[in-house]
Amino acid sequence: MNQAEWLRAAHIDDLMDGEGFESDVEIDGETVALFRMDGAVFALGLCTHEQGPLGQGNVDDGQVTCPWHSARFDIRTGTCLGSPTACRVDGSIQIGDADAGESIPACRTFAVKVVDGEVLVSRAAATPRARDGELAAE
Ligand code: FES
Which of 21, 70, 86, 122 is the right S-S partner for 34, CB 3.0 to 4.6 Å? Predict the structure, then answer.
């Protein structure tokens, strides 16, 4: 996949405001998670802690919480806003994981555009325009 190639990741109607969506698209081995927020769509890669699926995380106030150990990321920029704080033990959540407080890098962001209702993503990093919450259109 070259930088300019666009891949269909979802239909806009698949995305609910305030919820994540785990697409079938992988870029460089990272499953692309989609988020619809305030009329715009954003795409993130995997959690940078242990590759948790951010598309399955809870969304609140422009942030997604990783379902594995609760690191939080800004949906618009990928910036990590909260370090891992919990770990799964036999299906339960245990606060106080050894990684708690660990500083982790931002997750990847991907460029998104919506064309005729189809949500397309590319390997290119999200542009400042997309980060400002505007839908790119052709
Ligand atoms: S894998 Fe996401 S916080 Fe651990």
Answer: 21
Q: What are the two backbone dihedrals, phi and then psi, of residue 12, each rounded to the nearest 5 degrees?
A: -55, -30
Question: What's the CATH code of the domain at 62?
Answer: 2.102.10.10
Report yes or no: 74 and 81 within 8 Å, Cβ to Cβ: yes
CA of 57 to the centre of ligand 1 (A): 10
Atom 4 of ligand 1, nearest CA residue: 69
The whole-number pLDDT of residue 85 equals: 79
Domain of 98, in residue numbers: 7-131
Identify which of 74, 20, 24, 80 has the alpha carbon closest to the alpha carbon of residue 48: 80
Whether the predicted model's global pTM rises above the 0.85 cut: no
